[in-house]
């Protein structure tokens, strides 16, 4: 049997001779946004696409000895479901690779982990049959059950008072691919944080302003990545339960026999900083995580509970108790108090805190030194009456600009697909209910700047906005009405879903304006921008197809192709979330 390695997609060029011959590859490919590759696979996907378009035939012989299988991770709510998994599966075959088992598709809208488990079982059986039918595979003995599992890390502690690294000098090529934002983000002060909804609403959406002067450059309606912080009480609880010294300073290094895949976060670092900034302590662990934790439980009751919850038979119980109960690692440690996890193991088994992305609600022309965000604050009541709080939105909402010592956030910029037409005279149709109005606010500010400061001729600006009630959650009401009075916002269509017996949404308003909408799109070269939930985006897209059929006398298939061509030309842009 040969050794296998687990690598980031950025590590190897796809068409090197050394990587394509006598090679067996298992590809795990997630799809981001509207059918886009993840950040660490963009370069690889682009190179593959270029070769497919220009020289695919010449590459086929070079990949002729490649054997592969692919599992895609996606969400069926999105139109381009598992686009990247499908791309890798078909493209590798085009390049001459030999598929050793069918493409697996995981659906995060239902149970991605169950989808993967089913595919994984078939994969192992296929690999064993094909490559090691007569091999004796290792098994775990009864003694192994009482041993800690192997860990990829070793830990090195430093004397008290040792210098720590908030922004490490570790070169980016020595950083784990998914951890790069930890090293490239910048600390910026929050200068404003105010509530946008009425107190009668019950929910919360806050307007946040961040000073990025000399720290960060952005373009109108880009995406801002925010690195959240765990609450101090959560960090203290985990440390108390596991017996960690929060002020201890440490670094990680590869354990003997384990390959180093890059620094997971800046080091040296205190335990407090590690738990606060980099480990996800509140999100529900997956069933596979619970299975790993079994080996750290000293009490038989805790061990059996974790085994049951992580089993296929315990899927329903897992959903009810862990997912619907909003049980995170911090809660699990209390529910299973016999869990004893050394720090290096905890860093290995605990997921890292992921950045949260917000579409910027400001124009870089009007506000070059500040970024504005519209943040919907996540709060859900548990069955026991306690409140689960979203780690990032609660952190942002809780910042007090008056407290200069603790009102900074660590952020980075990511380009968005929202870009105004190159010809400023072309009209734009903006559809953004709820916090989906954020980029529309930015676009309207930019169009105002074009008209009032740059003296440009600006086309019609049409906005569709929706919420529950005018007096409850009509966010940015004063500003949007001011845009209308100034003549920047030419047509403003409102859908208040709870102000009448029948619910009215933005797609209903769009349908009512079918003739106007088709004229703007087909005859006046309008661009369409959509931001909000996936289901809303789907309904808007279906409405646009219906408009094309009704007003443009197209067949349904032609309408679908028409919308796709608008998207390819950058005239139909969606940023949606599940």
Summarize the SSE layout with pairings.
Layout: H1 17-20, E1 24-32, E2 36-37, H2 42-54, H3 56-60, E3 67-74, H4 83-94, E4 98-99, E5 104-107, H5 112-131, E6 153-158, H6 180-184, E7 186-195, E8 205-211, E9 223-227, H7 232-242, E10 249-254, E11 269-270, H8 271-277, H9 287-293, H10 300-310, H11 315-323, H12 329-335, H13 343-349, E12 356-359, E13 370-376, E14 379-381, E15 387-389, H14 391-397, E16 408-414, E17 428-431, H15 438-452, E18 461-467, H16 477-486, E19 491-496, H17 506-512, H18 514-523, E20 527-533, H19 534-552, H20 556-568, E21 572-577
Parallel strand pairs: 1-3, 3-4, 3-5, 17-18, 17-20, 18-19, 20-21
Antiparallel strand pairs: 1-2, 6-10, 7-8, 7-16, 8-13, 9-12, 9-16, 10-11, 14-15
The coarse overall form would be globular
What is the radius of gyration computed over CA atoms, rounded to a whole number of angstroms?
26 Å
Low-confidence stretches: none
What is the structural class?
alpha/beta
Strand content: 15-25%
Characterize the biggest β-sheet: 6 strands, antiparallel
Q: How many separate helices? A: 20
The count of DSSP E runs of length 2 or more, i.e. the number of strands, is 21
- Identify the strand order in the major beta sheet: 12-9-16-7-8-13
Q: Mean pLDDT across all residues, rounded?
A: 92
User: What is the subunit arrangement here?
Assistant: single chain
